[in-house]
């Protein structure tokens, strides 16, 4: 979803669910469902009808990755988790006890860090990378005398 939001921030007009779905290779219905949580928090807005679509509703510097995470319903942060196939097994209990503290510490650290990164920081990083790539492509083009086999 961060990918989608940074693309939206670059757009000069509303972006349709279909276009956003194409960016992350999913169904537009999935985009609309996910964007609903962001809209409910006031981070995005949608306009219906011809020329409608999704737009960013807040200054990117005021929205953190933690805000987005919470607006999306706080999905699981880790694919790993405790096993519950044999809850009476003492080995499973010992492993789960050890992992619980580790997962809780890691989650707290990650959530804290997400609270320090704004969508504006992601957007600026994108722009910086795009400028660097553009300079590199211009230099390569000049060195190769603008041969049509350019990869940039």
Characteristic terms for this protein:
Arc Repressor Mutant, subunit A, single chain, 152 residues, 6 helices
Protein described:
The protein is mainly alpha-helical and 152 residues long. It has one domain (2-143): Arc Repressor Mutant, subunit A. Helix content is 57%, strand content 5%. The longest helix is centred in the last third of the chain and has 25 residues, at 90-114. It starts with a helix and ends in a 9-residue tail after the last helix.
Overall pLDDT score: 88
Shape label: extended
Our Rg estimate from Cα atoms comes to: 21 Å
* Arrangement of strands in the largest sheet: 1-2
Fourth-tier CATH superfamily name: Winged helix-like DNA-binding domain superfamily/Winged helix DNA-binding domain
């Amino acid at each position: 979803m961060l990918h989608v939001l940074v693309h939206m921030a670059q757009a000069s007009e509303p972006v349709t669910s279909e276009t956003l779905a194409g960016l992350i290779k999913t169904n537009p219905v999935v985009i609309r469902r996910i964007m609903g949580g962001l809209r409910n928090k006031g981070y995005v807005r949608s306009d219906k009808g011809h020329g409608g679509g999704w737009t960013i509703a807040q200054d990117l510097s005021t929205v953190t990755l933690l805000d987005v995470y919470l607006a999306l319903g706080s999905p699981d942060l880790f694919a790993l988790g405790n096993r519950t196939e044999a809850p009476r097994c003492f080995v499973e209990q010992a492993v789960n006890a050890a992992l619980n503290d580790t997962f809780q510490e890691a989650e707290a650290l990650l959530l804290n860090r997400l609270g320090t990164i704004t969508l504006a920081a992601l957007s600026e990083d994108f722009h910086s990378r795009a400028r660097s790539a553009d300079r590199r492509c211009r230099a390569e083009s000049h060195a190769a005398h603008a041969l049509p086999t350019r990869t940039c």
